[in-house]
TrEMBL record:
<keyword id="KW-0813">Transport</keyword>
<keyword id="KW-1133">Transmembrane helix</keyword>
<dbReference type="InterPro" id="IPR003369">
    <property type="entry name" value="TatA/B/E"/>
</dbReference>
<dbReference type="GO" id="GO:0033281">
    <property type="term" value="C:TAT protein transport complex"/>
</dbReference>
<dbReference type="InterPro" id="IPR006312">
    <property type="entry name" value="TatA/E"/>
</dbReference>
<keyword id="KW-0472">Membrane</keyword>
<comment type="subunit">
    <text>Forms a complex with TatC.</text>
</comment>
<feature type="region of interest" description="Disordered">
    <location>
        <begin position="76"/>
        <end position="97"/>
    </location>
</feature>
<keyword id="KW-1003">Cell membrane</keyword>
<keyword id="KW-0653">Protein transport</keyword>
<feature type="compositionally biased region" description="Low complexity">
    <location>
        <begin position="76"/>
        <end position="91"/>
    </location>
</feature>
<dbReference type="GO" id="GO:0008320">
    <property type="term" value="F:protein transmembrane transporter activity"/>
</dbReference>
<dbReference type="GO" id="GO:0043953">
    <property type="term" value="P:protein transport by the Tat complex"/>
</dbReference>
<comment type="similarity">
    <text>Belongs to the TatA/E family.</text>
</comment>
<keyword id="KW-0812">Transmembrane</keyword>
<comment type="function">
    <text>Part of the twin-arginine translocation (Tat) system that transports large folded proteins containing a characteristic twin-arginine motif in their signal peptide across membranes. TatA could form the protein-conducting channel of the Tat system.</text>
</comment>
<dbReference type="Pfam" id="PF02416">
    <property type="entry name" value="TatA_B_E"/>
</dbReference>
């Protein structure tokens, strides 16, 4: 898209002057400026709110699994250590599952 030069800007202003008239043109400029200011203010508030919520949100905790201490592995009874890995555990409590 080409840039608008001074000649094109003058043509646009002359067409606006003819269409809207000399009395209505300043009012249109004021309302356009007020609308742009309000838009800029609302987008700035939205940006600040978003950045504030991102800044205030704590990072998700990272869960790490610590290896079992060697002392607890040595303390296991020999009967539990000899159980095969594919053995089925039988619940000892009266759990209603």
């Amino acid at each position: 898209m080409p840039n608008i030069g001074p000649a094109e800007l003058i043509v646009i202003l002359l067409v606006a002057l003819v269409v809207f008239g000399p009395r209505k043109l300043p009012e249109l400029g004021k309302s356009l400026g007020a609308g742009l200011r309000e838009f800029r203010r609302s987008t700035q508030n939205l940006k600040e709110d978003f950045e504030g919520s991102v800044r205030d949100t704590p990072p998700a905790p990272v869960q790490t699994i610590a290896p079992a201490p060697a002392a607890s592995q040595a303390a296991q009874p020999a009967a539990q250590a000899a159980v095969p890995a594919d053995a089925v555990a039988v619940p000892t409590s009266s759990d209603p599952r």
